[in-house]
Design goal:
alpha+beta, five-stranded mixed sheet, 4 helices, globular, binds adenosine-5'-triphosphate, binds magnesium ion, histidine kinase
């Protein structure tokens, strides 16, 4: 199915923002192409896990910024926090099942270490990628990139098709079932 990432992220933030210390949630949309092909519930799971981590590992609060932009033919979504950060040596293990960073800062923060493994699995199934950059005590940024569908900008596509086929007697039947 075609899904708009903006509406998925808005609903994730709406659900997650209650009862947190987070100062403000920012949603920065730097592209109009935000339609991807995928499963709405699974994509919502990805951003629920990332946003809930951003909240959980920001015990002092701070801001959370979700930024959407286009790179090549991909939609990139950054989830950035101003929390504890992640030690460099932990970064390669982060997406491994049951892996948790253990240090005095976060000993009291509970979890099973599955959230990011699930993120990676779902993103992979959508032919996307997930990566992370972080600085201890400054914060972390998780980036998900997903392929933008050719029909991402439906109106543009329709106009292009119209121009292309304006002089031919063709009817274009769109069948997106096989893409779902
Ligand atoms: P679960 O998500 O299963 O409840 P979890 O949050 O510990 O448990 P993951 O979401 O997989 O597991 O994260 C793995 C580890 O990566 C965490 O234990 C935490 O140490 C670190 N981590 C993840 N996100 C962040 C973040 N935004 N800031 C700092 N550390 C993070
Ligand atoms: Mg987690």
């Amino acid at each position: 199915k075609y899904e708009d990432i903006v509406s998925i992220i808005e609903s994730v933030i709406e659900t997650q923002k209650v009862n947190t210390k987070i100062h403000q949630f920012h949603l920065q949309k730097e592209t109009d192409k935000t339609t991807v092909l995928g499963d709405r519930d699974k994509l919502a799971q990805v951003f629920t896990n990332l946003v809930s981590n951003a909240i959980k590992y920001s015990p002092e609060g701070g801001n959370i910024t979700v930024r959407m932009y286009e790179r090549g033919n991909r939609l990139c979504i950054d989830v950035q926090d101003e929390g504890l950060g992640i030690p460099e040596e932990a970064l390669p293990n982060l997406f491994t099942k049951f892996y948790r960073v253990d240090n005095s800062d976060r000993r009291r923060i509970g979890g099973t270490g599955l959230g990011l493994a699930i993120v990676k699995e779902i993103v992979k199934a959508h032919e996307g990628e997930v990566s992370v950059t972080s600085e201890l005590k400054k914060g972390s940024t998780f980036t998900v990139s997903l392929p933008l569908v050719a029909l991402a900008n439906a109106e543009e596509e329709e106009r292009d098709n119209y121009e292309k086929y304006a002089h031919a007697h063709v009817i274009i039947v769109e069948d997106d079932e096989h893409l779902a």
